[in-house]
């Protein structure tokens, strides 16, 4: 077992570590099919071997070549560290700077098997969101960070540590770029080759920027999305008894199960990968699991006359407010506090209480809170819901979306309904063209089913995963007549639900307590709640108050539902004022030792200013600039100039390679006045940049917010748009 000291000592070469290959019993990334020529295979091998001195190349070359042949990429499994990969308390890292230790903490969290989707392939989430391209890069990065001083900056090229370069104490300690491929060559086909060659990398968003905090982040986003969808589509605040159907229980999508419970609805989530489903069930995020469509439908319909616990089982805490595991059973078999699991349901975990249900009336009328995992293809689930509608006249679903990794549909992001999970993985590697045809047929079937349900009182939205974009490319009926390029039959969640939130400067702000102590996180929760409550007491607009109240509720629910996976982190949606005030409060708490170690501030790239993505973050920008990336690039540069500890700029993320430019940052608070000043400057820019851009595009809410911000800060001067008040001016001019 390696130590952190050994991990920071450079590549282990003498002796070489044992080649243990792929570890059994953990999820692995799908086989990639880059289609390299012989010359390109030689180049990929040469590129991998340049990390190693000549005396070990002869030994390593055959195994690297075998990895390329078997898996489509050289991951260097031999160098996967023999250490418990997790975010260690920051003081345990052998570093010369606090910033470097904080970055190490964040990197190891991204690779923690409890957090990462495919840890041995260095994939954090999204099916292909890489932290590094290979394990040699990990070792070298940890080595450089351990040696780095306040007068150096580590430069990262798509996972590759280019080296430490002289800089200044005010410069970022780390600058990351991922996937910066020349636009004419930024296609999926080219990407597969370039990744196999080891020269570029898809960092998703927070995978390659070392800022992922586990599924908590997307839990919060999903909670807000579903709450605001209910307000917009159903006209309700209380989701009790409403059914939300979706798919995906992976690194990001797994959050949907917990979000359904927090908002108080009935969530049914389909997942083809049994390992992912079981992970969420063991985590307690899925309350029930079944592989039976009949059982899914029955569960939506059946309700309890009453609840009775089997003898010998401890009572559930009243505050839990949810059913841990529900079975439809006859009371006769009960004995000694045990009951058998009926066909289609998983058995209870040891020591878990079991609630017994007696069929009576429909579950939706009972308004039960439930997260039900269906082990199967979501297309089959949608089609079964259509069958129920056509045969009974009853629509069993109210809200729907999709969180498959459709940004990567032909390499494991979307599995066709015609094949089992294992059959699909085999065909994906052996015949990619046929696999692609089946995926596109499956997308057409899924859209057809959704379209039928949408004729009833059912509402569907695209979750920004490129589902509707890929469905359109597959020939599915998603066209919206007379619409622009970024609009489909169903809206993106940004267009209808989250876009106005971004325009007001609200987005996914987060922090990580590098001490690893839950008590530090509890202190930050208390500080954030106090900041928001004080802001409300001082008077804010009704729309802002609503968002603050949602966040106060979220913080309380997050602690109650134990959402921390990996590092001690918290996320909430905040505006510019809230972010700055929370940062200042946390920094002061570090200064007075109420918080024991530095805190890393960050955010999702999916934010007000961080991402230019015409089919997601900027899909509600209608002045033609949705396809331009100036905002994200300027944000990356501006954060670096104003005090960020590290910055990252990525091609791809969310919607997919070549579809997005996005960036993020990390800012270390250490309790010093300098840290507070950096936070004030950088966080203000990080929000105002995007609000100003959205204002210029014609968004009225952004206009109001940026005008208010200029009144509060005389140093901020933004160009404001003038509307064309008379449309006849345009018409007459174009007739000339």
UniProtKB/TrEMBL annotation:
GO terms for cellular component: cytosol. GO terms for biological process: L-histidine catabolic process; L-histidine catabolic process to glutamate and formamide; L-histidine catabolic process to glutamate and formate. Its cofactor is NAD(+). Residues 500-706 form the Urocanase C-terminal domain. It catalyses: 4-imidazolone-5-propanoate = trans-urocanate + H2O. InterPro entries: Urocanase, Urocanase-like, Urocanase_C, Urocanase_central_sf, Urocanase_CS, Urocanase_N, Urocanase_Rossmann-like, Urocanase_sf. One of its GO terms (molecular function) is urocanate hydratase activity. Keywords: Histidine metabolism, Lyase, NAD. Residues 85-211 form the Urocanase N-terminal domain. Gene3D superfamilies: Urocanase like domains, Urocanase superfamily. Its EC number is 4.2.1.49. Pathway: Amino-acid degradation; L-histidine degradation into L-glutamate; N-formimidoyl-L-glutamate from L-histidine: step 2/3. It is an enzyme of class 4 (lyase). Pfam families: Urocanase, Urocanase_C, Urocanase_N. Residues 214-301, 361-497 form the Urocanase Rossmann-like domain. Belongs to the urocanase family. This is Urocanate hydratase. It comes from Macaca mulatta.
